[in-house]
Amino acid sequence: MSKTRKRSPAASRKxxxxxxxxxxxxxxxxxPAKLGKRRQIxxxxxxxxxxxxxxxQLMLESTYTPLNYAEAQxxxxxxxxxxxxxxxxxxxxxxxxxxxxxxxxxxxxxxxAAAVAAPRLRPAVAGAPPAPFIPGANNWLxxxxxxxxxxxxxxxxxxxxxxxxxxxxxNGAVVxxxxxxxxxxxxxxxxxxxxxxxxxxDLNPTSFASASLVxxxxxxxxxxxxxxxxxxxxxxxxxxxRARVTSALPAYRGVGMLRSDDGGENWVSEPxxxxxxxxAFFALAVDPRDRENVxxxxxxGLYHRVAQPxxxxxxxxxxxxxxxxxVxxxxxTATRFYCAQWGQNGGASNVLHSDDGGTNWNxxxxxxxxxxxxxxxxxxxxxxxxxxxxxxxxxSGKLQGVYRLDGxxxxxxxxxxxxxxxxxxxxxxxxxxxxxxxxxxxxxxxGDRMNTPPWGGSVWRCAIVPKGAAFKVKSxxxxxxxxHADVHMICHTPGESN
Length: 498
Fold this sequence. Notes:
alpha+beta; 5-stranded mixed beta sheet
């Protein structure tokens, strides 16, 4: 790098006087109200790849912060009553107009269209006419979906956009990926090639910050891979936005529950009460013995798909609160659902179960931790209703622990020596656990990132063994560094350990 030549103090004063005389105030003349000093401090902080706050902060400040002259003493108006992005700061953010996200998106689409058209309008040789439109020929240019080359992984692997959840059919040939803001993608060859399944689907949302292509959960009927349920609205972002921009964008919101009976070619919107449009989903669990019986974990409570007169179905709220996980296991004669409530504003986080198909729910086990418990992710073997693991965070999103229960009337037992899957403290955003289909003592944990550059994905394989009256991790291995950070979902092909 070349060194910048320094001006003397006298020269700098002369330049400043000339600029002031010309009426120029410079880039620092307009600063976010009450954020000027803090903004300068933030910009000096080294970016360490610690997570979404690194890229969200400046975007949110630029969107929500009213502008004042840096030297102005005018107080912030009463309408700028939002909380700040950094905890502990007294800075105020301006209220977003109701169309801000739509306007920004339309502006982006106009820029993209202009960028695509630009090469056709630009002559290859100075003075030459633009390339002609050829009737009958393929005059379309592909815009995607595609991958991002040189992603933030060990080895700079290509990465895609954020995927909230995935559903894998038996034998692994058919896979569905529910993306955070691009709808559902389907692969019929085990993930080698993909089709976008929602390009023709557009349900006009009526609630702020909602979109029909925002996905938070997906599940399928294992006996019919064409029956797919999708919960729109991405629950993983709930706490992230609530903690930093109160009431501005609590999550990427959706349009409620969708169902497809033909592998994603067509989608049907299913009703809910209270209405789930404008809310978000964390997980869906389909009863392996009855594909019409489904339970949803959402930001608006625990919902159960209930039959209505005339052969229709409605999603009915069976418990209030935020539910961040729901799983199901079944034998040939019985089905058991487990769910995890995420206590908000000081409320308790706990695990419940249902043995009557999802209508009634009871506390699960005894001695579950009660101190500093935040989000919980649940994992089990789908053919064993009597054993479940709970991957637990603290209220601030750090690793609290992993617990195991062998029987709903038994005690929860702590698993010690768990690796630090959440060094970034983002358990409210990244949290997943999977249990090997054939080995209940082999679990997989997914968290935020590795603690060394280039901050690859935090995925760990852990072998569990008894330790006295509890359990411990005998050995663990990091296996996710070639994926991007922020791991939202791990699952097996049904019945296949590898």
